[in-house]
Amino acid sequence: MTTFEEVLYDTLGDIDFDAAELKVRYLAERDKRLRNDGNEQYVEVTGDFSSYVDDPYVEPEERDALFDHADVAVIGGGFAGLLMGGRLRESGFTDIRMIEKGGDFGGTWYWNRYPGAMCDVESYCYLPMLEELDYIPKHKYSYASEIMEHSRNIARHYDLYRNAVLSTEVTHLEWDEAAGHWTIETDRGDQMTARVVVSAAGPLSRPKLPGIDGINDYGGHTFHTSRWDYDYTGGDSNGGLAGLADKRVGIIGTGATAVQCVPHLGHAAKELFVFQRTPSSIDVRNNRPTPPGFAESLEPGWQYRRMDNFNQLVTGAHQDEDLVNDGWTDIMRNLTGIAAKTASKKLGRRLTREERAELMEMADYRKMETVRRRAQKIVDDPNVAESLKPYYRQFCKRPCFHDEYLQAYNEPGTHLIDTDGRGVERIDATGVWANGEHYELDCLIFASGFEVGTSYDRRSGFDTIGRDGVLLSDYWADGMRSLHGMNVHGFPNAFIVGPTQGANLISNIPHNLTEAGETIAAIVAHAQASGVDEVEVTRGAEDAWVALLEAGGRSFGGDASCTPGYYNNEGQEISTAQLRNTLGYPDGPVAYFDYIARWRADGDFAGLTFTQA
Fold it and tell me: What is the 3-state secondary structure (H, E, C) of 553-589?
């Protein structure tokens, strides 16, 4: 009779590591990094730090304050806003106002112009509206400049520049009950109104800084990676940072951004010091140009089919073909259930919960061993290679894929300053202290990412005041409440675009935004066709949706056994409120997208009320 242990080894292949030893090592590495302050270890970019969010790319044009009205106002000009604006145009709306704090459309890709910036999900899935614009990306993983230009092209294609206000940040949003519209105030003195408001600011939009002692004392040049200073470094997002040739540069942060820009910094700077608290998992990227004839092989509907195929594979469903065939699908084939299905077939019965958990854990150990051995093979200095090995489960942090990052540590002027989980001690006027040593620097760069886990009003930069003067921050004091993550009771004619309390798909976020854009456009178009003034979710429907999500327990909140990061609330216990802010549809993204497509197609829009004021 075949045993589970035999099937385990047969399914995974040779297991040449000690799982018990790795588990102990993982927990020890986590414990080194646990901090009592959690998300409070980061500094909000306000007050003394507000210069870190200034726009270095354009000088805002002078204009008069606006006191006019639009039918629909979309706050945010990134992918979420562009998809929303495009679907509204397709639904026949002409009076749309786009409001964007950047100097142009692009959102994340307007701000993230650091050298080496590119998408880490296949561009044929990631870049939205490729079929609508009849465009094929130049590489399997597009670089920032191309993504930015594609964003502009979406805006041009749907005439979203018309009536748009750029370099403009919303400061106040309030429902006017008597007038039946929203009042929108901005940092440009505007007091405009709109019948419908869509908040499309995106999940990663507000930079954060590490709360290191002395951060304000540093006297050299400094900036955040999302506000790259090319006047100082020279070059552009493709590299060529000639201004750093005689500079000692430090960078704090070793997440996805640093992984992409460190190779360029190491090549250009006189010396580069990378201050590491926790290494990222660096697997093979294998980027390459789009092959000749790729476009000719595609049939109508190809992009959505590719997105769906990718989504199915990365959430554990069976697909006869892997259209994307990259690091993401390779990881997820092993870690989301396909291995368990294979083992179950070999065993002739369903796996128990304990057996499934053991198989997934062993598959994860095996995959992470290949990542660690890759670092050992590529990096010349064995001590540096050891410091670059990640000791945690694959999805404790967002996986990274790159073909030059590990190699950068073979540059003679590149120095990894591994703090063994403690982080930088302090900053002074001339540099950084770490491991009891001082590193004198000409330039200090913060690759510390964006706020996750902070309140919605803090990330958006303004609070929202709904019916009867209720603040959204107060209504969500015990956690987010919504229907589908889009509609909130007491906030009529207001919509939110994002993954939370919907599909919660985190591998290819534009898939979330695509479905939300189509759904919200369908609701607003139905209201207009029906001649009604207000759309609002009932409290009962909102309660039922939140109860469904809580009962399902499918959360983005992460695992307490993981090394700390934004996936698991920096290792801190997750409160009921924080859990609600990370919930997704119980049956997963594939089922959610099927559900929401049926919901919007049947025309009833169950849970919403459409009323004539």
Answer: CCECCCCCCCCCCHHHHHHCCCCHHHHHCCECCCCCH
Using CB atoms within 10 Å of the CB of residue 185, give its burial: 0 to 12 exposed, 13 to 18 middle, 19+ buried.
middle
Say if CB 257 and CB 402 are below 8 A apart. no
CB 562 within 8 A of CB 30: yes
Q: What are the residues whose beta carbons fall under 8 Å from the beta carbon of 111, sequence distance 6 or more?
A: 102, 226, 227
Whether 225 contacts 233, CB under 8 Å: no
- Say how far apart CA 433 and CA 606 lie, in whole Å: 58
Q: Rounded to an integer, what distance in angstroms lies between the CA atom of residue 109 and that of residue 113?
A: 7
Inter-axis angle of helices 327-335 and 353-378, nearest 10? 150
Length of the chain: 613
Backbone angles phi, psi at 564, to 5 degrees: -65, 145
What pLDDT, in 10s, does the model give residues 242-262?
Answer: 999 999 999 999 999 999 999
At position 380, the amino acid (one-letter code) is D
> What does pTM read for this prediction?
0.93
Angstrom distance (rounded) from CA 570 to CA 150: 34
| pLDDT tens readout for residues 434-487 | 999 999 999 999 998 765 555 555 555 689 999 999 999 999 999 999 999 999
- Report the C-alpha gap between 583 and 501 in whole angstroms: 5
Strand, coil or helix: 596? helix
Rounded average pLDDT over 78-99: 98
Which is nearest to 49 in space by CA: 419, 448, 484?
A: 448
Handedness of CA 327, 329, 330, 332 (dihedral sign): positive
| Residues pairing with 427 in the sheet | 432
Contact by Cβ (8 Å): 193, 175: no
Residue 50 backbone zone (phi > 0: left; psi -120 to 50: alpha; other: beta)? alpha
How crowded is residue 424: how many other Cβ atoms within 10 Å of its Cβ? 22
Tokens of residue 327, six digits: 């690091």
Query: Is 401:282 a contact under the CB 8 Å cutoff?
Result: yes
Question: Could you report the per-residue pLDDT of 276-323, keeping only the tens digit for each?
Answer: 999 999 999 999 999 999 999 999 999 999 999 999 988 878 788 999
DSSP class of residue 102 equals: S
**One-letter identity of residue 407:** Q
Show Cβ contacts of residue 469 under 8 Å, excluding neighbours closer than 6 positions.
none
User: For the CA atoms of the chain, what is the radius of gyration?
Assistant: 24
Dihedrals φ, ψ of 210, to 5°?
A: -70, 135
The two tokens of residue 462 are 């303004």
Residue 330 class from Cβ within 10 Å (0-12 exposed, 13-18 middle, 19+ buried)? middle
Name the β-bridge partners of 139. 289
- Residue 262's nearest CA partner among 416, 486, 76 is 416
